[in-house]
């Protein structure tokens, strides 16, 4: 009789767990080491031991002795605006391409896909000039607009996948009850697509929180930097302040990890909806 | 029916849909469309920091650059630097994507079964995704530090010589690929895991009844079942890796020398790092990169079609 899959031979079991433990260690070690290092005194940054003299000096220094809080504030403004506007526009776009057949739909779908391909290098110089002429350099709004073009096309594709899984009968019922198309979308369909909103929100947040190229080019001057630019000032050709770098990096990683923890339950569903049915 | 009447009628039926997509079209049009057109124009000129329009204090200096036709393109394509960078960019992209995909595929298959600690493994393996990429890249820079980094300290503990992770051209290439794979696996893993879970379990049971071995089940059920998901994630990951700016910019700045410089970081360097800033050359590189990517996407789509994919 064939063995059922739950009865694995013990050697296979050991191999399985060994492989997964090894992979997990590789995945977890760098962030863990970052955390450990951030609690060491500045001069011990490169010791191999775990924390021998636990200290919060790095954190105190970063928070009170540098412009870190300003950068953090700049990033929060940019990211919050990008996420709110991005999720909303991705949802309306995704809904429109999922439910309506309208002239211009195919070109739009193609446009959304093609913008994924645009390398930073193609747009960055002309975009720099454009933002300069609009007076948006060193302005959060300039970065928000830029990030929307990165996040929204992909998110709109994912949202389309989500809306496709919601039965059209729900829309029809709403219409029968006298709701406008926008009313149907807003009051009936959007609440059902909450996991999709979580995933697109997460993706937009991460994109904006972690973007480097545009942020480094468009934001200059210590008080205008976002976190990506600010972190570079700790470790560059002139200074090697690994203590501050690690503490700042940990503070930057925490909000991202929290948002991730919140969204991760929906990630599998979201990505497969977006990638297989796109 | 006259044209205006036809437009009015189309507007009457479709205005909801058009209003809903309008913000996206507008933003893409302004922030991508205008710069793109301007980028094409710049690539046909000799614009650089010294001759573009600018203001110094109260003085406004008008632009003095000229239209030069295809000179920039000729210069790029006949320059060995371009072909060197293209070669390494291809190695980088293919290396990263294939290693990421194979690792993620193996891990997804290991994770997709009932066992103790499954949730723990899953969380641990997607952790790199939860941390902003530039934070991870800085962390890796610390681990890779030649004199003091933990990797070399561990090697020393095992009696091995220090490895010049980021200071030797070959090691630097391997190091940046390793970091990018580390960053990319979680996304692939989650996507493939989703794909695996959408394959009906009965297929495996039936195959097992018929006496199919593990490899045969993988080959004839898992691989075809994952084709749609893998097609999309491989294309996305190819495009993302080809344009992956932060890993290389923050880890090595393209160095040592220009050993790890990919096309995108090189184009960025031309207009934002080097002095004087060479806007026209940078725009030209950008256009060439776009052309290369378009070729990749078209070729890839054709290959998928041949296999009967609907995408």
From TrEMBL, chain B:
The entry's keywords: Cell membrane, Membrane, Transmembrane, Transmembrane helix, Transport
Major subcellular location class: membrane
Residue span, ABC transmembrane type-1 domain: 86-300
InterPro entries registered for this protein in UniProt: MetI-like, MetI-like_sf, UgpAE/MalFG_permease
Superkingdom field: Bacteria
Membrane topology value: Multi-pass membrane protein
Membrane-traversing stretches: 15-37, 90-111, 123-143, 174-196, 226-251, 279-300
Record's subcellular location: Cell membrane
Biological processes per GO annotation: transmembrane transport
A GO CC annotation given for this chain: plasma membrane
Pfam families for this protein: BPD_transp_1
Family: Belongs to the binding-protein-dependent transport system permease family.
Name of the protein in question: ABC transporter permease
Originating organism: Streptomyces noursei
């Amino acid at each position: 009789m064939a063995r059922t899959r739950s009865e694995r031979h013990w050697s296979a079991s050991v191999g399985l767990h060994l492989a997964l433990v090894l992979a997990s260690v590789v995945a977890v070690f760098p962030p863990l080491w970052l955390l450990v290092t951030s609690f060491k005194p500045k001069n011990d940054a490169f010791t191999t031991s775990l924390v021998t003299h636990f200290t919060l000096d790095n954190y105190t220094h970063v928070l009170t002795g540098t412009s870190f809080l300003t950068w953090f504030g700049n990033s929060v403004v940019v990211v919050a605006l990008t996420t709110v506007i991005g999720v909303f526009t991705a949802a309306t776009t995704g809904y429109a391409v999922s439910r309506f057949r309208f002239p211009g739909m195919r070109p739009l779908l193609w446009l959304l896909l093609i913008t994924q391909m645009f390398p930073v290098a193609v747009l960055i110089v002309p975009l720099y000039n454009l933002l300069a002429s609009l007076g948006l350099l060193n302005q959060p709004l300039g970065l928000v607009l830029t990030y929307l073009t990165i996040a929204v096309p992909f998110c709109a594709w994912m949202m389309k996948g989500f809306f496709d899984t919601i039965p059209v009968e729900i829309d029809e019922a709403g219409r029968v009850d006298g709701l406008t198309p926008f009313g149907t979308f807003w009051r009936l369909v959007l609440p059902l697509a909450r996991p999709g909103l979580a995933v697109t929100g997460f993706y937009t947040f991460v994109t904006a929180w972690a973007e480097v190229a545009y942020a480094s080019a468009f934001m200059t001057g210590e008080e205008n930097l976002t976190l990506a630019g600010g972190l570079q000032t700790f470790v560059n050709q002139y200074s090697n302040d690994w203590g501050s770098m690690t503490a700042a990096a940990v503070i930057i990683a925490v909000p991202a990890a929290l948002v991730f923890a919140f969204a991760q339950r929906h990630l599998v569903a979201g990505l497969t909806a977006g990638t297989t049915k796109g | 029916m006259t044209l205006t009447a036809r437009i009015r009628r189309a507007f009457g039926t479709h205005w909801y849909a058009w209003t809903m997509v309008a913000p996206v079209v507008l933003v893409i049009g302004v922030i991508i469309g205008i710069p793109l057109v301007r980028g094409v124009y710049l690539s046909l000129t000799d614009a650089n920091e010294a001759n573009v329009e600018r203001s110094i204090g109260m003085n406004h200096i008008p632009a003095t650059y000229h239209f030069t036709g295809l000179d920039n393109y000729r210069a790029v394509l006949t320059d060995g630097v371009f072909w060197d960078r293209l070669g390494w960019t291809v190695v980088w992209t293919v290396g990263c994507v294939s290693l990421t995909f194979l690792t993620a595929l193996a891990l997804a298959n290991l994770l997709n079964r009932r066992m103790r600690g499954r949730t723990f493994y899953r969380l641990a393996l997607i952790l790199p995704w939860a941390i902003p990429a530039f934070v991870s890249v800085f962390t890796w820079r610390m681990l890779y530090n030649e004199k003091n980094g933990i990797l070399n300290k561990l090697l020393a503990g095992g009696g091995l010589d220090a490895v010049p992770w980021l200071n030797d051209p070959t090691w630097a290439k391997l190091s940046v690929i390793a970091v990018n794979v580390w960053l990319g696996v979680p996304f692939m893993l989650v996507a493939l895991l989703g794909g695996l879970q959408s394959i009906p379990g009965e297929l495996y049971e039936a195959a097992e009844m018929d006496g199919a071995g593990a490899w045969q089940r993988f080959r004839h059920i898992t691989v075809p079942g994952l084709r749609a998901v893998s097609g999309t994630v491989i294309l996305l990951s190819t495009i993302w890796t080809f344009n992956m700016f932060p890993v290389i910019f923050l880890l090595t700045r393209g160095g040592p020398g220009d050993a790890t410089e990919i096309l995108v970081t090189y184009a960025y360097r031309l207009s934002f790092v080097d002095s004087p800033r060479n806007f026209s050359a940078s725009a030209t590189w950008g256009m060439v990169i776009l052309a290369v990517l378009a070729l990749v996407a078209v070729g890839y789509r054709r290959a998928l079609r041949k296999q009967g994919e609907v995408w």
